[in-house]
Amino acid sequence: MSEANGTQPATSDALENLLQENRKFAPSEEFAANAVVKPGIYEEADADHEAFWAKQARELLSWNEDFTQTLDWSDAPFAKWFVGGTLNAAYNALDRHVENGLGDRVAIYFEGEPGDSRSYTYAQLTEEVKKAANAFESLGLAKGDRVAVYLPMIPEAVITMLACARIGAIHSVVFGGFSADALRSRIDDAEAKLVVTSDGTYRRGKPSPLKPAVDAALEAKGHSVSSVVVVKRNGEPVDWHEGRDRWWHEVVESASADHTPVPHDAEHPLFILYTSGTTGKPKGILHTTGGFLAQSAFTHKATFDLHAETDVYWCTADIGWVTGHTYVTYAPLINGATQLMYEGTPDTPHQGRWWELVEKYKVSIMYTAPTAIRTMMKWGEDIPAKFDLSSIRVLGSVGEPINPEAWMWYRRVIGGDKAPIVDTWWQTETGAHMIAPMPGITETKPGSAQTPVPGIAVDVVDEMGQSVPNGHGGYLVIRKPWPAMLRGIWGDPERYKETYWSRFDNMYFAGDGAKKDDDGDFWLLGRVDDVMNVSGHRLSTTEIESALVSHPSVAEAAVVGASDETTGEAVVAFVILRGNAVEDPEIVTTLRNHVGKEIGPIAKPRQILVVPELPKTRSGKIMRRLLKDIAEGREAGDSSTLADNTVMQQITSSLKG
Ligand code: 6R9
């Protein structure tokens, strides 16, 4: 770990706390007896990991052409899974269930923030996707073209993604909270031909616009977009660009509901999803069809103990993040599950909204993030206590390490002290769960993601890439290719190799620190690189720093993630102002808004501290570790390697003043 980055000290504090944790919760006999996954699965997967995945792929997916080779790793680290196989993702998610007599099963219960609701059976959703596929084709979209999706959490988002998959077009979903600039850079990088958006959505009881950001993104000439399809959601007035813009209800609703899915190669690209890396430029993570779907479907079934006939599943993630891709759009539908989709915020119109929905839809599997759980803890347990949560039988967590207190609260208050908690570690890059308990087998431990998913080879290694013994910490790596692994970074194969495969020989380096406890269970300790995790969302320090220095008032900026009780980490920025800006009393607000505009509101620093200098090593690297000490209210640590060791003194006295 570099001197300049400084997550190490925080990591060892976290370790000490976690070592005190020794509670264990075994599944009840009844749960274990009815569980989808039986003991023995680990041995089966260990015996032959390729055979294991081949079996899952054949059992969980319908192939037009069976594959002839499970894994081709001859061009490592570029993997090919299920070579020679062909299939259609949308057919697997929809048509085949209708053909199998499940057309009347509800696929999606949708609940809008204002309280409107609608539901789609598998038959209805299939019809909508066929219409959307025809509509997109009528706009000139063809196999391999890219589509930017900038939509709120409404069924049209899922319909759009599946319609793309059906055609073989590649979707690139951009989170609705990202700015016009962020949207434009993603449109440009993928050279998207079509944008699908909406007039807007509802946020905290008020209409919130989306279309204006698309208009702003496409204002400057030289882009690749020929059509924009607009879903009418909140009815707010929008500007209209004749010839470019079309209403969804005109093009999609009038399209034919007959559409034959064509089979695509197992390695045909399914989607691109941009994620923050350690440099300023987001990476377009590329996923392909067969492997992604196989591991997604398997993990969704195994980790959540899905009984598709009876369960009601709810993942609270937005489709703008990978969790919304794998565990909202694809896996639940591939598995024929019934799921709930909710548009809004958890506290509108009241802080019990989520629990009201659990009661209303009898949600049995809930999947959310630690930041949400901690927020609910703050609001108080008398709020969920007002609702009937007895339908809940499995609780999932994702996005960041879950602290034992939040884990215990989740289990006791939401899970009625009986529902197993599955803490799932994975990434945009891994595509699907990689470390997670199997709820009918694993004795769960508060705060630990515990065991690699069957068929996944996870390890913790030291600086030299040697596996560490139990009871030790180090870097989290993946030793063998896995079906849902990213196939590359869009347009940049070198960066793919460099980012993930260059730190250790023949191992994928995830960027996370982890520890193995005495039982060999995994405990995740956060990022070891310059990526922050704010409410489960990845933000790059570099990206926010470049946004700050792009403002004319800022000479230099350094950003750190400071621990925050609710959001896990919070963005804290240290800036050196240019001479003429020093006297501006509004400067902090101006800069926060500037970051919001450049990247999106989620990236706005919680705090911006104006300082006279930044601590740097002789080689010019900013020592973020020292800034983190200040941001977290500690005495700054060892500053002996600073080029100028009076700098910390200058900073602290300027902040006091
Ligand atoms: C799925 C998702 C990935 C990063 C990852 C890690 C953190 C995710 C976690 C977790 C501890 C968990 N992370 N799940 N850390 N325990 N259960 O969040 O993908 O947005 O790409 O973030 O999130 O640091 O490296 P993504």
From TrEMBL:
Alphabetized PROSITE patterns for the sequence: AMP_BINDING
Binding site residues for Mg(2+): 549, 551, 554
Residue stretches making up the AMP-binding enzyme C-terminal domain: 543-621
Cofactor list: Mg(2+)
AMP-dependent synthetase/ligase domain segment(s): 101-490
EC number in record: 6.2.1.1
GO cellular component, one term: cytosol
Domain Acetyl-coenzyme A synthetase N-terminal: 41-93
InterPro entries, A to Z: Ac_CoA_lig, ACAS_N, AMP-bd_C, AMP-bd_C_sf, AMP-binding_CS, AMP-dep_synth/lig_dom, ANL_N_sf
Family to which this protein belongs: Belongs to the ATP-dependent AMP-binding enzyme family.
PANTHER family (UniProt xref): ACETYL-COENZYME A SYNTHETASE, ACETYL-COENZYME A SYNTHETASE 1
Name of the protein described by the UniProt record: Acetyl-coenzyme A synthetase
Gene from which the chain derives: acsA
